[in-house]
Design brief:
The chain has four helices and six strands; from the N terminus they run ββαβαβαββα. It is of the alpha+beta class.
Length: about 130
């Protein structure tokens, strides 16, 4: 947990946050990786943990991350927590999925819920086959 100390200075309260090692690890885990992933087909799902269609996609994203380990990069970014990423990628609605080929070129976008079958089909078009 984060330890806080309160100081009163001229009628103002200042919060000093001191990160413990556990908090430092949490902060590191929240770093956005390079996008697209070098040399890999990449799908970036930009959404929010509290958005209903995004919540519906979460188990699909988790399954795909396991199924495509070392074959495709699948990255989720919560744009409510990382607003600068919404601007960076020009997001106008969530969830938005952006697909990149192995060379790092954006090859497609989709706004809204996207089912697993459609994502797998896009990966296959980009040369990443599903393992049965």
């Amino acid at each position: 947990m984060i330890k806080t100390k309160w100081l009163v200075s001229i009628g103002m309260m200042i919060v000093l946050l001191m990160a413990t090692p556990a908090v430092a690890d949490e902060l590191k885990a929240d770093v956005i990786p390079p996008i697209p992933t070098s040399g890999m087909v990449t799908m970036v799902d930009l959404g929010a943990h509290k958005c209903i269609p995004c919540k519906m996609m979460a188990p699909i994203i988790e399954e795909l991350q396991k199924e495509y380990t070392d074959r495709a990069s699948i990255i989720f970014i919560d744009v409510w927590e990382h607003r600068e990423q919404a601007r960076r990628f020009g997001i106008r609605g969530i969830p938005t999925q952006i697909f990149y080929d192995k060379e790092g070129k954006e090859v497609g976008r989709h706004v809204g819920f996207l089912d697993k079958k459609s994502i797998v089909a896009t990966f296959e078009k980009l040369g990443v086959l599903a393992i049965d």
